[in-house]
Amino acid sequence: MDIRPTSDRLRETLFNVLASGNPAALDGTVWLDLFAGTGAVGIEALSRGAPRVYFVESSLKAAQLIERNLASLGIKRGFEIVRAEVAGAIHRLGAQDLRADIVFLDPPYRLQDVYAATLEALGKSPLVQASTRVVAEHEKKFDPGERFGKLARYRRLVQGDAGLSFYKLSS
To answer: How far apart are alpha carbons 27 and 25 in whole angstroms?
Structure first.
């Protein structure tokens, strides 16, 4: 498995930025955790008040790991594990009239082309609305890009060897 869990420190930074100092800001948010791996980010979202998280993971072993992690924490509802390639999942979930508040993507760092393809697909997807925030975790030395159709980066943070790029729709 090609899993690299988001570090605790980077995950804390992510949630602090998204909450903007208001711990209740994430209550009621619907999340997509793309390339979910261990499910750590989506599980954190559930623990912080998200009523629904979609874990998208193509690897059977990783999907089973997410299931075990959720079960070990006693989490029985509020999630769906979507075992599919991310591009197909974006299309399928968008066709179901799902609207995401936050989309987190963390593909294996070595798959740099996947960032552009995924961000481009999200920029065209009905999953992403004006209020949706899309966050890409990436290597510090890699820049996934500024703009993907209507999706534009508005913030970039670097912590240790990793970075977070924040995107939203722009006109």
So the answer is: 6
Q: What are the CA-CA distances from residue 39 to residues 21, 105, 129, 137, 171 (Å)?
A: 24, 11, 24, 14, 32
Q: Is the pTM of this model over 0.90?
A: yes
CATH pick for 8-16+24-169 out of 2.40.160.60, 3.90.76.10, 3.30.460.10, 3.40.50.150: 3.40.50.150
| Cross-strand partners of 55 | 33, 81
Domain spans in the chain, listed from the N-terminal domain onward: 8-16+24-169
CB contact at 8 A, 123 and 150: yes
Q: pLDDT digits over 14-61, tens only?
A: 999 999 878 788 899 999 999 999 999 999 999 999 999 999 999 999
Residues 6+ apart with CB under 8 A from 81: 36, 55, 57, 63, 66, 67
